[in-house]
Amino acid sequence: MKKGIFIVISGPSGVGKDTIASKLVKSGHGIYSVSMTTRRIRKNEIDGKDYFFVSKEVFKKYIEEDKFLEYAKYNDNYYGTLKDFVFKNIDEGINVVAVLDIQGGMNIEKIFPPAVLIFIMPPSFEELEKRLRKRNTDSEEDIIKRLKIAKEEINYKDKYDYIVINNTVDKTVDDIIKIIEKEKNR
Length: 186
Known about the structure:
The longest helix is centred in the C-terminal third of the chain and has 16 residues, at 169-184. The chain has one domain (6-184): 3-Layer(aba) Sandwich (Rossmann fold), CATH 3.40.50.300. It is built from seven helices and nine strands; from the N terminus they run E-H-E-E-E-H-E-E-H-E-H-E-H-H-E-H. It is α/β, with parallel strands linked by helices. The radius of gyration is 16 Å and the shape is globular. The protein has a five-stranded parallel sheet, sandwiched between helices. It has a four-stranded mixed sheet with strand order 4-3-6-5. The model has no long low-confidence stretch (mean pLDDT 92).
């Protein structure tokens, strides 16, 4: 049986990473790697489906117990990818799709080189700002902070295996499905 692949999707906040990952999963091209985080839950998010929401104390205990494939601190919160979940599914031939920040993506590149790293770019920086404002989940202060971080994150795009511009979600998902099929057949 062919092993599955670990697909890492990164890019600036508001670029559509979660929407893209969700469509990949719904189209049967993998299962979603549910990360653990210490950030507060947003409306419409479900604990255990979108993230495992935990306290910083619980997260630090998991770090001590070496349960993460990678973890990172972003915007004063921790995010981590659970080892057991990823390796069990890949061994069973199932693709695992993870949405990770740049720090997480770079950590995965070092720790698990077979991972396929995909960087999602906005069509323009203006469009990125528009998308962040449209989703209506962050304060003005948070939007400004996210845009500043986005400028820094875009500098890492060339360290990824693939760069995909998210003009429309459906086209982006189609492009990523082609990447998955190419990588699966290596």
